[in-house]
Amino acid sequence: MKNYELTVLVHPDLEMNLEPAIAKVKDLIEKNGGKITKESNDGKKRLSYSIGGQDFAVYYYFEMELPAEAPAKIESTLNITDEVLRHLLVKVDERKLKYEAKQAERRAHGEETNTEASETEEEK
Fold this sequence. Notes:
Alpha-Beta Plaits, 4 strands, 4 helices, alpha+beta, 2 domains
């Protein structure tokens, strides 16, 4: 199972009763063998451009683990879901996460970070 991030833009008219729309997305993830590790409601925001005549959307973010065949199934279903204006499903770059964790650990220990030196050490 690989780690993925999903951002869903929910129709702004559903802001007051967001639970059914989010429950539909969660159910879709779980039916396809996924496990949600983190989720957050980032609130209603103005869009850069109108989508379906809407200038605002409610942003909802998920971090999850999915089997290999699940992303395609989830995306195809989200494409035809009325509550969802847009969505973005991306695979998390594990190497970048490890690098950032290592940098955070160095900062926590008070070491000064030099990105060029760190990258050179990792390449060896």
